[in-house]
Amino acid sequence: MTTQKLFVLDTNVLLHDPQSLFRFAEHDVYLPLITLEEMDAHKVGMSDVARNARQASRYIDQLFNHAPDALSSGIPLHLSGFKEAQGKLLLQTTLNIAPLPESLSDEKADNLILALVKYLHEHPNGYNDVALVSKDINIRLKARALGLPAEDYFNDKVLEDSDMLYSGYRQLDADFWLRNGSQLESWQEQGKAHYRIQGKDAQSLLHNELLLDQDDNKTLQARVVSIDNTQPSAILQTVKDYSHNKNSVFGITSRNWGQNYALNLLMNPDIDLVTLLGQAGTGKTLLTLAAALTQVLDQQLYNEIIMTRVTVPVGDDIGFLPGTEEEKMNPWMGALEDNLEVLTHSDDMGGAWARAATQDMVRNKIKVKSINFMRGRTFQHKFLIVDEAQNLTSKQMKTLITRAGEGTKIVCMGNLAQIDTPYLSEGSSGLTYLVDRFKNWPHFGHITLQQGERSRLAAHAVSVL
Fold first, then answer.
1. Are residues 280 and 388 in the same domain?
2. Among 267, 273, 263, which residue's Cα sits nearest to residue 398?
3. Which helix (DSSP H) or strand (DSSP E) does residue 47 occupy?
4. Where are the beta strands (DSSP E) in 172-309?
5. Which of 48, 279, 332, 338 has the smallest number of CB atoms closer than 10 Å to its CB?
């Protein structure tokens, strides 16, 4: 008996990731006929599921064209150009199935797959193990109840544990400055203190990571601005204090160190991509809009703000919506309206007319776009805000980020505890994927906001509900 395994793919795996065919290394992949039938039912339309169904069908067709006479014996998967796939693709060519308990209907697609897996498990034909791979928890539970091996599809997961995700900051231990004091260099430049450290501590740092040194009397916040791996050494720069009224951003000041660093990232034109993670009420949207409006209206670094989000309803869908693209998106943009009301509210002597004029001017600089029409576009000198980014897949995230043209800044915000997209988890979310892949790029910044600032009621609800 060989050490090779045979993995039977459920339809939802191919609909989630068409390249899953090539993600099983030296092991073989088995496709039930019912999987092809279900894929055929999903291939019509412009959704990501339909696109994935068509792409998976193309991959299978390419393999069949390479070896049309090897359907049952197995087609080498590397023939499609994926050299890491050293196994074979096998297609069900007979209707051999094992009997299931009477409570499981033979007509249901999931049960037909289970009956096939049971037959293959009882007749392994030289394989060390036969296992079902599915994103559907229920079919995996039924398989285990029948004594059949069943696994989730893990290849799309960036991290097994979301607690291991890069947070964007680190607390300095009490001995940090003692370890680095003998070779420490410091100087002032453009009103900010700079420090150069050398040695093991410098090796572990990442570009634009926040170093936080807190004690009873003061808090030092420093950003890693450059790293020299040949020395090794790193240069730290103290961050701007946005908690002071003189440094307010569109009338907004930071209320904690997380918000302060978020504003440092958002207001830095050298950082092209910013990701903000945090629970509800941590200020992600308000800070981002304040920074965007300041840089569009006052500093004129960008000529327009574009805001988009994934339209996944929390409850029942409200059906089709009338109007233009922007009018259709308005019901999803309640957070935008709430925060604009805060930013454009003024207690000065201008009165209601001045507030209305300010609101009109601000809204003229903000365009709300649907994520469904982003493919093929290029945004030049825009400030692009992606809200609820945790509901994006890694493929959708790549599509969005590659829309950036010259002079465009992208901010992705989200809460990994509020994922509404089917088959996505904290480990496989496109937002997790983005943070993990970009975390040491010099023009990327990230911070996980810890402290809620919405209200004492909201803060208590987050902690106890």
1. yes
2. 273
3. none
4. 185-189, 192-198, 210-214, 219-228, 233-238, 273-278, 304-309
5. 338
130: exposed, middle or buried (Cβ count in 10 Å: 0-12, 13-18, 19+): buried
- Cα–Cα distance measured from residue 340 to residue 132, given in angstroms and rounded to the nearest whole number: 50
- Let me know: does 309 contact 387? Beta carbons within 8 Å: yes
Domain count within the chain: 3
Strand 233-238 and strand 192-198: the pairing is antiparallel
What is the value of pTM for the model shown? 0.76
Compute the radius of gyration of the chain from its Cα atoms.
27
Do the beta carbons of residue 213 and residue 175 sit within 8 Å? no
pLDDT digit string, tens, across residues 355-405: 666 667 777 788 877 776 777 788 999 999 998 899 888 888 998 999 999
Distance between CA atoms of residues 59 and 349, nearest Å? 66
C-alpha to C-alpha distances, 399 to 28, 377, 378, 395, 403, nearest whole angstrom: 31, 10, 11, 6, 7
Q: What letter does residue 245 receive in the DSSP assignment?
A: G
**Residues 206, 280 share a domain:** no
Q: Do residues 354 and 346 make contact, with C-beta atoms less than 8 angstroms apart?
A: yes
Supply 257's token pair: 């160190």
Q: Is-cis flag, bond preceding 442, omega within 30?
A: no
Query: How many residues belong to the chain?
Result: 465
User: Is 70 exceeded by the pLDDT of residue 159?
Assistant: no
Q: What is the DSSP string of 173-199?
A: PTTHHHHHSTT-EEEEETTEEEEEEES
DSSP string over 369-388: --GGG-TT--BSSEEEEEES
The residue type at 349 = M
d(CA 231, CA 168): 23
> pLDDT by residue (tens digit) across 66-114?
887 776 678 899 888 888 889 999 988 888 888 888 788 777 888 899 9
Amino acid residing at 122: E
Q: Is residue 270 part of a domain?
A: yes
Range of the domain at 261: 248-464
Looking at the structure, tell me whether residues 175 and 125 fall in a common domain: no
- The answer to whether 186 touches 195, Cβ cutoff 8 Å, is yes
Helix (H, G, I), strand (E, B) or coil at 278: strand
